[in-house]
Amino acid sequence: MATTFEEMNCAFPANLAEALKLMADERTRGRPLAGGTDLMVQWESGVLPMPERAISVKHLPELRTIEETDDALEIGAAVTHMGLRRSNLVVRYLPSLADAAATIGGYQIQTMGTIGGSVANASPAGDLAPSIMITDGEVIVASMRGERAIPVNDFWTGYRETDMAEDEIIVRFRLPKLPAEGVEFWRKLGPRKAQAISKVMGSCRAIVENGDIKQFRVAIGSVAPICVRLRAVEELVTGKPLNEETIAAAEACAAESVKPIDDIRSTAEYRKWVTGRMVRGFLEQLLG
Ligand SMILES: Cc1cc2nc3c(=O)[nH]c(=O)nc-3n(C[C@H](O)[C@H](O)[C@H](O)COP(=O)(O)OP(=O)(O)OC[C@H]3O[C@@H](n4cnc5c(N)ncnc54)[C@H](O)[C@@H]3O)c2cc1C
């Protein structure tokens, strides 16, 4: 183990193929390092031991693009939060993700921190997770064995745990676009309006047709070891008229669906209540 940054051996591969080759061999494998906005803090504070080797992935050209297909956006893992909020494609087709990226830290963090780093860090307070989960998209990981698409809702397996193997890195995200008749909302509740880690945050994607809720997907973060989709709420409201009766039932169901903990940022009781209010807020916003 290294004990200072100077002792750490950091490789700067020129492209993805070189990076995967380094990751494939135990003797050259290193901790993927993107913006470093989580890792540097974790290493410096001792939360994580400093590894002997790191592999910079932030400058890999294959990880830095945003591409549009017929039904999805393919977003490279090294796209920064600033890149997300400034992308016309993301603003148009994944508006909740663009809004969430715009609330992360300040400009310095947004220009260094990446979507891949946020997702791989697997914190329940990672602000991008809800907006990614409501798309029902995929995380594409790669190794020398090839690429693998993991449904985003299966990617996080526990607190700071993911479905990635040791030699894999995230290369991109395939996130289905918001349909023309749909809307997305993002909401973050923290102790203040800027530079705040979330107490509770969430996103929804919805389609309302002739006053009935045709589709409702909602994901909430900071209320469980991983960010969660509120499936019971989704099932409860789908096909129902968008009215106060449905909204009140959804609010109660949402508060009951989550089992948060007390921690330094908030209490479990408050988080349950806020989850219900957040779902109510999303549905009321749909009413216009
Ligand atoms: C002052 C400050 C304020 C912050 N505010 C917020 C906030 O408001 N909201 C929020 O959500 N976060 C916040 N963060 C946390 C942080 O900015 C994000 O989680 C960021 O997106 C992490 O990305 P990164 O590129 O810096 O990751 P890194 O720190 O480089 O890496 C994080 C983890 O991801 C892994 N990793 C990185 N890229 C890949 C890849 N392509 N494939 C596989 N593994 C990979 C690393 O090995 C590591 O485990 C803040 C951090 C700081 C320091």
Explain what the structure shows:
The mean pLDDT is 94. With 288 residues, this protein is an alpha+beta fold. It contains twelve helices and 14 strands. The radius of gyration is 19 Å and the shape is globular. The strands form four sheets. The protein has a five-stranded antiparallel sheet. A four-stranded antiparallel sheet has the order 11-12-13-14. Strands 1-3-2 form a three-stranded parallel sheet, with helices on one face. The protein has two domains: 63-176, Uridine Diphospho-n-acetylenolpyruvylglucosamine Reductase, domain 3; 199-287, Enolase-like, domain 1, CATH 3.30.390.50. The longest helix is centred in the C-terminal third of the chain and has 20 residues, at 268-287. The chain starts with 8 loop residues before the first strand and ends with a helix. Bound molecules: flavin-adenine dinucleotide (FAD). Flavin-adenine dinucleotide is lined by residues 31-39, 41, 57, 77, 104-105, 109, 112-114, 116-118, 120-121, 126-127, 169-170, 197.
Order of helices and strands: EHEHEEEHHHHHHEEHEEEEEEEHHH
CATH class wording of the largest domain: Alpha Beta
Q: Taking all residues together, what is the mean pLDDT?
A: 94
Number of domains: 2
List keywords for this structure.
12 helices, binds flavin-adenine dinucleotide, 288 residues, 5-stranded antiparallel beta sheet, Uridine Diphospho-n-acetylenolpyruvylglucosamine Reductase, domain 3, globular, 2 domains, Enolase-like, domain 1
Question: Can you summarize this structure?
Answer:
The chain has twelve helices and 14 strands. It has helices at residues 16-24, 39-45, 81-86, 88-93, 95-101, 107-112, 115-121, 129-133, 152-155, 231-237, 244-257, 268-287; strands spanning 9-11, 31-33, 53-56, 66-68, 72-76, 138-143, 146-151, 156-158, 161-162, 169-176, 182-189, 200-209, 212-221, 228-229.
